[in-house]
# Entry
Amino acid sequence: QVMDLRSGQPKWSLPIVGVNQPLPVGDVVYVVSQAGELTVVNRETGQVYWSRDLNEGRVRKEGGFLGFGKRTVRPTWSGPILASNRLVLVNSDGEAVAFDPKTGAQTGSLKLGSAAYIAPAAYNGALYVLTDKGQLVSIR
# Structure
């Protein structure tokens, strides 16, 4: 929900449940839902420009015995951060994935070696990712 600072009244809201901080950039806001949807909305009106299922092609079945009791596993996503005109997110499958901020098209990915649950940070021309195994990965 976005609030008007002068009046304290809600301006608009969307039915998105997320654990990541939304990323405001210019006149848009990038939001990642808990279900793995990356959505871009107009900052003033709440109009959705596009939405992308980040888990497309990444869902897998795990566990079970002889095919019984298997559960569907979807990666958990953290981010995004905007760096070098790319939206970069990391996930629990150990990937850093870049997307075009205007279209949502995936533009690249990189294996990190282990899961990442904290959004990347940018500093001095590089992205830094802390993996679940305590490794600090620098991406240039």
Notes: The first strand starts at residue 2 and ends at 3.
